[in-house]
């Protein structure tokens, strides 16, 4: 690369990723092939429209690569229709709302402090000005079980057009069948935002909402799915819904699709169809369980009481007197990256909440097994208990660096 300034920044980020441990549960390390496709000359091409129906010429290869991505996505998630053009998870959700709702219509989704996402109707978003978002919660934060009875009551009262399942900070499996039953009762469409667990679904390590009758899945293609940053909308079998979604993505909401990104999605979906990916998905869960065990041992409160997936949400303020922000900073100092996070009904503020959220997708890609994950959990707790002890933190930093060196990011360095 000729641009020395940007090159230096890329090298710096490379070193940061190489020497530290990535525990942000929505991050991962993509393969060389995914990087190569994402950095390919498909980036030069404009392709408004869909395969076979574009507004520009020269689409021989773009059509083929988009068809391949669609075919692989449908095989991976066991569905009939896929739109692989959304630029990321938020645009995928917004395009889905625009496809199915009129202004003022109601969406019933997970309460944000109980694990939902900004695009599930947070008041700071524009969609919250357009549509009416109502919320369900967990019944009990000790088990994480959703209050399905409450959900049904709200659904009967508010008659939502969409019932939305899914989360960005929730660690338990959902009972999709219950969502579907309630939706049928009130005539709602079921939409699952599976951005966090798409890789776990693809690897058959957790349930696929389509198997229980969900109509739509939206997702990112990075995170556990280990593809390029991007989004996707899947429709189980309803052609009418699929057509509305295609129209909504383009021309309704987006312009030209990023074909380099779609090529990289095709590569990632191909990788996710392999037996090795199934093994990877199962190992993510085993690793999260190993970390959960250590947090239990040290009596640190976990929202939902533990985890069934790739992430843990821990109340570090309530258990250790360290705020989420302070925990994030001090763990960064020793080479562990994670994020502060609100916990259910948090009394603290989003920029300094009570919790931290962390997970195992990235370290599992590096080859970590249960033993290493348990060690990382011990080191995290030791760091938080010694947050003002410089010497102790230096010792831990060295241990983290050694561990990172022992498990290099595959195919990179
Ligand atoms: N920022 C993503 C996450 O970390 O969960 C969701 O958009």
From TrEMBL:
UniProt-listed CDD domains: SHMT
Alphabetized NCBIfam families for the sequence: PRK00011.1 (NF000586)
Residue ranges constituting the Serine hydroxymethyltransferase-like domain according to the UniProt record: 2-379
Site (Plays an important role in substrate specificity): 222
GO CC entries: cytosol
Top EC class of this enzyme: transferase
Family per similarity comment: Belongs to the SHMT family.
PROSITE patterns, sorted: SHMT (PS00096)
UniProt organism field: Candidatus Nomurabacteria bacterium RIFCSPLOWO2_01_FULL_39_17
UniProt keyword Transferase, yes or no: yes
Catalytic activity as recorded in UniProt: (6R)-5,10-methylene-5,6,7,8-tetrahydrofolate + glycine + H2O = (6S)-5,6,7,8-tetrahydrofolate + L-serine
Modified residues (N6-(pyridoxal phosphate)lysine): 223
The protein's annotated pathway: Amino-acid biosynthesis; glycine biosynthesis; glycine from L-serine: step 1/1; One-carbon metabolism; tetrahydrofolate interconversion
Gene Ontology BP annotations: glycine biosynthetic process from serine; methylation; tetrahydrofolate interconversion
Protein localization: Cytoplasm
MF terms in GO: glycine hydroxymethyltransferase activity; methyltransferase activity; pyridoxal phosphate binding
Function, in words: Catalyzes the reversible interconversion of serine and glycine with tetrahydrofolate (THF) serving as the one-carbon carrier. This reaction serves as the major source of one-carbon groups required for the biosynthesis of purines, thymidylate, methionine, and other important biomolecules. Also exhibits THF-independent aldolase activity toward beta-hydroxyamino acids, producing glycine and aldehydes, via a retro-aldol mechanism.
Binding site for (6S)-5,6,7,8-tetrahydrofolate: 112, 116-118, 239
Top-level taxonomy: Bacteria, Candidatus Nomuraibacteriota
Essential cofactor(s): pyridoxal 5'-phosphate
Protein name: Serine hydroxymethyltransferase
Signal peptide: none
Oligomer and partners: Homodimer.
Alphabetical UniProt keywords: Amino-acid biosynthesis, Cytoplasm, Methyltransferase, One-carbon metabolism, Pyridoxal phosphate, Transferase
């Amino acid at each position: 690369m000729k641009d020395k300034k940007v090159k230096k920044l890329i090298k710096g980020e490379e070193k940061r990723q190489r020497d530290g441990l990535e525990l942000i549960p929505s991050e991962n390390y993509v393969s060389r092939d995914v990087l190569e496709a994402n950095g390919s000359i498909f980036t030069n091409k404009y392709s408004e429209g869909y395969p076979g129906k574009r507004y520009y010429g020269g689409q021989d290869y773009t059509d083929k690569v988009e068809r391949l991505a669609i075919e692989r996505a449908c095989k991976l998630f066991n569905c009939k229709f896929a739109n692989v053009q959304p630029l990321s998870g938020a645009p995928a959700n917004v395009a889905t709302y625009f496809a199915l709702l009129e202004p003022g219509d109601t969406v019933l989704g997970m309460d944000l402090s109980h694990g939902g996402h900004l695009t599930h109707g947070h008041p700071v978003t524009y969609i919250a000005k357009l549509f009416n978002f109502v919320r369900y919660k967990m019944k009990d934060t000790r088990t994480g079980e959703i209050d399905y009875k409450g959900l049904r009551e709200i659904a009967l009262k508010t008659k939502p057009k969409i019932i939305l399942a899914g989360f960005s900070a929730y660690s338990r499996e959902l009972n999709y069948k219950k969502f579907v039953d309630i939706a049928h009762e009130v005539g709602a469409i079921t939409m699952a935002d599976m951005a966090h667990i798409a890789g776990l679904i693809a690897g058959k390590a957790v349930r696929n909402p389509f198997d229980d009758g969900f109509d739509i899945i939206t997702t990112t293609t990075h995170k556990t799915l280990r593809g390029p940053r991007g989004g996707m909308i899947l429709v189980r079998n309803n052609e009418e819904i699929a057509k509305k979604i295609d129209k909504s993505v383009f021309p309704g909401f987006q312009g030209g699709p990023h074909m380099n990104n779609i090529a990289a999605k095709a590569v990632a979906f191909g990788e996710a169809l392999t037996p090795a990916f199934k093994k990877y998905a199962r190992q993510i869960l085993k690793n999260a369980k190993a970390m959960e065990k250590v947090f239990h041992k040290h009596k640190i409160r976990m929202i939902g009481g533990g985890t069934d997936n790739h992430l843990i949400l821990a109340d570090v303020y309530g258990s250790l007197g360290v705020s989420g922000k302070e925990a994030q900073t001090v763990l960064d100092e020793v080479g562990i990256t994670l994020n502060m996070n609100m916990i259910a009904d948090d009394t603290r503020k989003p920029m300094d909440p009570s919790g931290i959220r962390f997970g195992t997708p990235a370290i599992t890609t590096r080859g970590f097994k249960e033993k290493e994950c348990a060690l990382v959990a011990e080191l995290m707790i030791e760091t938080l208990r010694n947050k003002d002890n410089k010497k102790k933190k230096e010792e831990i930093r060295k241990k983290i660096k050694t561990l990172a060196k022992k498990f290099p990011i595959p195919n990179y360095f």
